[in-house]
């Protein structure tokens, strides 16, 4: 234990060397005990007594004592080594630096659901308190409707690992994006099972969710604006990025482009969630309203309004619109080729 605590104060390279020496010491000591045990000379057999004596009190032989000692020593060493490794890992996480977004979802709780044979995944977002709106990393890019920054507390919930795909939409609604585009008199902007769905209004999303819930027996919905932003920021694992998962937008977002792209082809954010910056805008449940400076718990927006919130930016927009705090809004009946949805539960 003392060795583990001491190593916690060392640098990464020093810890690595010390662990190697510690493991080598364990191995050599174990081998030495084993050799000594096997090299011990067996006792010479004693001649049988002429007359039977009372049964002697049985004592453990030296060999048995050494075996027991070695067994206990081995368990103690293993426990110490496990403790050592745990402390070193903890120190490595606490020593600064950004977590790799490619592997950040390895510990996330992800549930898989099915609708007419099509699977989709939901990521658990642990509840917590965060600052919503124009936080410091947004700098001069922050718009007036992102102010004032304010504290929000949310309960735990689930959110889509990706945007709703064209495959899932068609499985539930029985209509493809190309059919919808044709009805609207538009061309498509990316087609395929793993492309995000678009050309859907807020009202279309409600119809989709109603059918999805009938198929699954669940209560899927659109996320609130606060839930969307908390998840985009990485929840309780947030590292304070400007975009969802990075300060470098090209790592995590499709933006300023000419078409949509398959989901989850950029890096994820701290929760293992993809495309919360760029690709397509995502409808939220809230009416668009103004922020206040008061602390809020599980806010759902204003009771009425003219437009519904959408978030995240898209392939059509520049980097400013892809920031985690940027707010957009449209009429509930509006649809276009860069506006889709993400589920919450």
List strands and helices in order, with pairings.
Elements: H1 2-8, H2 12-39, H3 62-94, E1 110-115, E2 118-125, E3 128-132, E4 150-154, E5 157-160, H4 166-173, H5 177-184, H6 202-216, H7 225-232, H8 249-252, E6 281-287, E7 296-297, E8 308-311, E9 328-330, E10 339-341
Parallel strand pairs: 4-7, 6-10
Antiparallel strand pairs: 1-2, 2-5, 3-4, 6-8, 8-9
Helix pairs in contact: 1-3, 2-3
Describe this structure in words.
The chain has eight helices and ten strands. It is of the alpha+beta class and 345 residues long. The strands form three sheets. It has a four-stranded mixed sheet. Strands 1-2-5 form a three-stranded antiparallel sheet. The model is unreliable at 1-23, 25-73 and 78-106 (pLDDT under 50).
